[in-house]
Amino acid sequence: MEKGKLGIRLSFYAVAAFILAFLGYSTVLALLAGFVLIVEKNEWASRQVIQAFFLCIFADIVNGILNIFDFLYQIPLMGSVWGTAISVIDGIVSLVVLIFCIMALVNTAKGNEANVPGLNGLANWAYGIVAPKVNQAQQAYYGQQQFNGQQQFNGQQQFNGQQQFNGQPQFNGQSQQFNGQQQYQQPEQQNPNQPQ
């Protein structure tokens, strides 16, 4: 792994960021993110630190939303139920953060992308990396044509390198052969009793 401007390996910043994210030190993590963005100016390290920062912010936002409902502790019977619910939700969030941090620590220690689900795209967006979008209309259009040496246009004509008009192209029920003979098929006789 390459070293930064100060001689410190860039993976160290990513590993330290995810350790700080697990511990919940969002202020120290914000300082580390600012340092990496301003001083090191390395795209890979910046994206990893931003992912760790967003992971820490996610846990802080969930805890902040749960703390809004602290007044429910004052209700005698509801207080214990609410306390249990808060503990379960907080435990689930901590477990998710721990799993994502371990996954990211293993990846970044090897010098790979952290690939935290959901936060990888957010970090790329924050850093200005935009993935090309596939246009659904083009996908449907290309699905109708075959470009393996043979093009089909609505199944009516085939051009496989040469135009095949020595066969029998069909024009509104009439068939013509161009090998010296012409054959015309008579259109079907209409029943005089049928209205036109």
UniProtKB/TrEMBL annotation:
This is Uncharacterized protein. The chain crosses the membrane at residues 12-38, 50-69, 81-106. It comes from the Bacteria. Keywords: Membrane, Transmembrane, Transmembrane helix. It comes from Roseburia amylophila. Residues 164-196 are annotated as: Disordered.
